[in-house]
Q: What sequence folds into this?
């Protein structure tokens, strides 16, 4: 790994107490929504973010959600855990994605859309998988933050940005990251997950998101699902014709039901 990037990851502060407590509650099968509610209510910013998302048309809950306990019940603990990890990213990182030719606002919107698409999709086909897929989709793009900082510090940002203008797919972007930085967004994200002592399944899912067929059996489905999501929504297109069309061969190859996925795509796209 690029030594400078490795040092940046190792220098990250640990997760704050709120996130650690949320992690512990979510991993305890005897914990309850009430346990999680008590912790989240102590963090006004996280509470506001969850309630704002619960009332977003991206998720399509039928009534206004005014209590955090109701939001947790609807989202499930795994998705709320994803919100907490996303909050930790915003606290611990200075976000500047100029080398990727996107604004911070656009970057955060892409992450939000990826998360909403994953939630709406897997809620219909296998909700229990969201235990891994929700936090994974929240954190899918985190490596780009570190890579962008490195590009700026090494004065490679202009060159990187000029190359991005010539490509149009996530796979081409991963190849560009590897050629210029020696590491991809997904590999950086996996290293960050390890630094924060997140579970091995989550680390492995992100690590194999570019090449799911190399994933071990226990995360093969997860890596495939992440590959579909990042193909549908990425810095080049967010559920436009090209990005949706690009998911179709993946859905066939991975034996995901097309009709279910495309129905969810329509719902999320209409509310982006």
A:
């Amino acid at each position: 790994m690029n030594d400078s990037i490795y040092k940046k990851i190792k220098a990250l502060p640990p997760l704050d107490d709120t996130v650690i407590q949320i992690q512990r509650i979510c991993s305890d099968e005897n914990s309850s929504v009430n346990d999680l509610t008590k912790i989240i209510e102590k963090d006004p910013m996280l509470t506001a973010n969850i309630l704002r998302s619960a009332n977003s048309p991206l998720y399509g809950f039928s009534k206004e959600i005014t209590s955090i306990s109701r939001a947790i019940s609807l989202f499930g603990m795994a998705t709320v855990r994803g919100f907490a990890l996303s909050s930790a990213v915003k606290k611990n990182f200075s976000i500047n994605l100029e080398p990727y030719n996107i604004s911070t606002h656009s970057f955060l919107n892409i992450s939000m859309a990826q998360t909403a698409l994953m939630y709406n999709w897997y809620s219909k086909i296998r909700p229990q998988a969201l235990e891994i897929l929700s936090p994974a989709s929240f954190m899918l793009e985190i490596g780009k933050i570190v890579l962008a900082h490195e590009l700026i510090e090494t004065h490679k940002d202009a060159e990187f940005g000029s190359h991005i203008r010539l490509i149009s797919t996530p796979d081409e972007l991963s190849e560009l990251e590897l050629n210029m930085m020696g590491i991809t967004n997904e590999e950086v994200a996996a290293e960050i997950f390890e630094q924060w002592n997140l579970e091995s399944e989550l680390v492995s899912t992100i690590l194999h998101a570019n090449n799911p067929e190399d994933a071990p059996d226990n995360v093969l489905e997860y890596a495939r699902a992440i590959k579909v999501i990042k193909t549908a929504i990425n810095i080049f297109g967010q559920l436009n014709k090209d990005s949706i069309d690009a998911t179709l061969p993946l859905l066939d190859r991975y034996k995901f039901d097309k009709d279910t996925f495309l129905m969810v795509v329509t719902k999320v796209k209409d509310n982006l």
